[in-house]
Amino acid sequence: MKPIFSNKGVTIGWKKENIIYDINGNPRAFINKDSIFNYNGNYIGRLQNGYIREKFGNAAGFLEHAENGPIKPIIKISNVPPIPKITPIQPIISIPPIPSIPSYNWSSLK
Fold first, then answer.
1. In terms of pTM, does the model score above 0.70?
2. Which residues lie across from 36 on neighbouring strands?
3. What is the DSSP string of 1-53?
4. pLDDT at 94 over 90
């Protein structure tokens, strides 16, 4: 599992293959192509160049190799990855919107 970091450099979740888990190992979203959907099938953002971007194009998190986005903070040491919980069946997904232009800003979403 790869850690997902916040704009403060703290681990806020985990990515394993095409699944995004919260800090406790609960599956919260999945990636289809570059689009990110929740388990209700709603589009919530995209993964682009290692940055997780919300609907408006601002970075909400990042993977260690992220590039072409806002300045990354110093990464804090991650905890040991949790044991992932069972992943729900992926729902029928909505059609993703035309992606917003990626910004060099951090999202205000928490």
1. yes
2. 31, 45
3. -EEEE-TTS-EEEEEETTEEEETTS-EEEEEETTEEEETTS-EEEEEETTEEE
4. no
